[in-house]
Amino acid sequence: MTRLEATRVVVSAAGEAPIVASLGHPAYDLFAAGDRPQNFYTWGSMGMASSIGLGLALAKPEARVYVVDGDGALLMNLGSLATIGLLRPPNLVLVVMDNGAYATTGGQSSPTALGADLEAAARAMRVEAATVRTEDDLRARLIGERREPLVVVAKVSESAPTARPPLDCVFIKQRFMAAIGNPEAAAHVAGRA
Amino acid sequence: MRERPAWATGVCAGLYAAGCRDAVYVPDNQLSHVLAEIGERYRDVRLALATREEEAVGIAAGLYLGGRRPAVLLQSSGLGNALNAVTSLVVPYQIPMLIVVSMRGDVGEWNAAQVPMGRAVRPILDAIGIAHATIESPADAERIVALTAATAFGTRMAAACLVPRRITSAPAP
Fold first, then answer.
1. Do A59 and B66 make contact, defined as CB atoms within 8 angstroms?
2. ipTM score
3. Taking CB atoms and an 8 Å cutoff, what residues of chain B touch A51?
4. Which domains does chain B have, with CATH numbers?
């Protein structure tokens, strides 16, 4: 499966739920798979997608929160797995698109290409985890009720995205917040009261 | 129960008055007073431990997107760890948060390894456009923290409140 195919499975499973995407190719593929206001595209802060998703999951326990991360990005913030294992929001689903490469920066091999195992890393931090290689297996992992956070490592091939999400960061944020029920303008006015 | 330093109770009262009900932190010796005070007297403030300051900023950003008013508690050395998330997430997306910085490397420091970053905190915050205020006396702490938070959430930009070592390391009266 390509990363774009895997991302389409995530978008389909998410329904109206928020999806946070790591910068570069994961975000580009999320845009290509289906631009929607509930998509939070990062344009920087490599490694932070899982942390943003964690904070969002804590803030909105009633919503399932999906994160589309990359193997290189998660390796840049591996402590995030320990914190997810500590705080354990049951509504957080972290999908790691593992292509074994830093594809956005030119395809340099990542440690997972030589066997570094992110599923094992998640388990070692007390987070339920699975590795999938097909769209059907990915879909099966994403549906159903959950009582624990979940990490799904999706082994993917590169999909060479050409489309790009909106570049205006504030637009992305305000559209996202309004779509998930926290319109920023209202919060701003309330804050002045 | 040991009496907590006035600056620490003031910091907690200030962040609570500003509406912060989430505090993401990386431990620091001086901040332990703040953490203990929150744990005992502000039970509706959720404390979240992060492994690294950049992660704390990312979690706080997600909390804000989810409708909360987050505070981040860190030591000045950790501001360096947090900079990429601050400059490439918090600033361009205009994500507000209160950042309470327990200062090291300023007057009263004993550890040379803390000095370079401590000296750089204000120039760095100025360079990246993060407003900051310094608590000048324990009695000022509540007001300065609340004002800093109001600036952050009002202007939708992170703002930092610096707690100098001359405040945090002073012996209890």
1. yes
2. 0.96
3. 50, 55, 57-59, 61-62, 85
4. 6-168 (3.40.50.970)
